[in-house]
Model the fold of this input.
Amino acid sequence: RWTWSGLPPKCGHQFLCGGGQRSSTAWRTPGAVPHTSTYALTNVTLPYALALANKGWEQALNDDQSLARGLNTHAGQVTYAPVAHAHGLESAHLVTV
Done:
């Protein structure tokens, strides 16, 4: 059962949602402006997608440190330390994979 007061939740305020669980939301989310947020997201991510498509993932990651940081796992190794820690695993350094 969902509870709704009729007013949008204020940023950081909690509201009651299904199953009695509490959740919170930020009022100014991209869903509030789907048309312009779609263009903004596409403009930001398209260069990465093109690099991956044109160069292949290995060369694209070698050429762009920010893209390389997005690699969480490879060949059975976890390359992102917080993910490895959350699962009780050792993390591998990005340069070794």
Remarks:
- The longest helix spans residues 34-55.
- The longest strand covers residues 14-16.
